[in-house]
Amino acid sequence: MESNTTWNGLTAFVNMMAKQLISPGAARLTEKILGWNPEELVEILHELTFELNLSHISVVSFAANRSRDLVLLTSVTTYSKEWQTRYFAKKYGDIDPVLKAGRTAILPFDWADLKTDEADRQDFHSDAIRHGIGQRGLSIPVRSRKAMLSLVSFTSDMLPQDWARFKSSSMQYLQQLSALIDSAANIGSKQPKSDVQLSPREEQCLVWAGRGKTHQEIADILGIGSGSVKSHLDSSRHKLRCINVAHAVGVAVATGVIPSEALREST
């Protein structure tokens, strides 16, 4: 009964949004949510950037029980693979003002209004622009009925006056579109089937191991020693009662301890 009620509510919500958002991209999002479109969400986001004359669209879902790395690895974005790899290598998640503001934001915010006077944030901003992220950005927080928080961001290289007009004329549409994007990104998400709780470091190490990284590569990514990586992997393996790391990754994904999306290759 509960699942039928949830499905009926979702269908009603999607149908309501679809009536207001008449565009090919919004239609494909709707079909994705209802299970009628097997397309990857990132491909739909690429179409939406073309429709809206934007540079990029991304969605990241925050969770109190997930490490920052896992939050980022399960995000969906049209950013280049080169930038996503560089973002991790440079540990930009530690200083990204958009992520910091997004965790507590209630209202949409323009990236130009964020505090970026520190030298490291200025360097980050310049590096992002060099990698084609876009001169301007707008982020819209989305809070679901499950009390989850997602942040949908839109970037552009429009001139300042054009960007201001775009925001003014499109804000309501973008907020509605963000709700659809969030629903599509989180459709089918389930609560973990296991009671096992990994520490943030155990989780990070296991995810990177699942993505094919060696102990030393994981150590370099996380800024810790390779011995610590081995210790965290051993600990996670024991918690999951597995015989080796590959087994632990498989069990973690199968039981919901780690979402499978965290192991996918960036596109």
Provide keyphrases for this structure.
267 residues, alpha+beta, Beta-Lactamase, Arc Repressor Mutant, subunit A, five-stranded antiparallel sheet, 5 strands
Describe the secondary structure blueprint for this structure:
Layout: H1 2-20, H2 24-33, H3 41-52, E1 56-62, H4 68-73, E2 76-77, H5 81-89, H6 97-102, E3 109-110, H7 119-130, E4 136-143, E5 149-156, H8 160-186, H9 200-210, H10 215-222, H11 226-239, H12 245-254
Antiparallel strand pairs: 1-2, 1-5, 3-4, 4-5
Q: How would you portray this structure in words?
A:
- The protein has 267 residues and is of the alpha+beta class.
- The chain has two domains: 39-186, Transcription factor LuxR-like, autoinducer-binding domain (Beta-Lactamase, 2-Layer Sandwich), CATH 3.30.450; 200-263, Orthogonal Bundle (Arc Repressor Mutant, subunit A).
- Helices cover 54% and strands 10% of the residues.
- The chain is built from twelve helices and five strands.
- A five-stranded antiparallel sheet has the order 2-1-5-4-3.
- Strand 4 (136-143) and strand 5 form a beta hairpin.
- Helix 2 (24-33) runs parallel beside helix 8 (160-186) and helix 10 crosses helix 11 (226-239).
- The radius of gyration is 19 Å and the shape is globular.
- The model has no long low-confidence stretch (mean pLDDT 84).
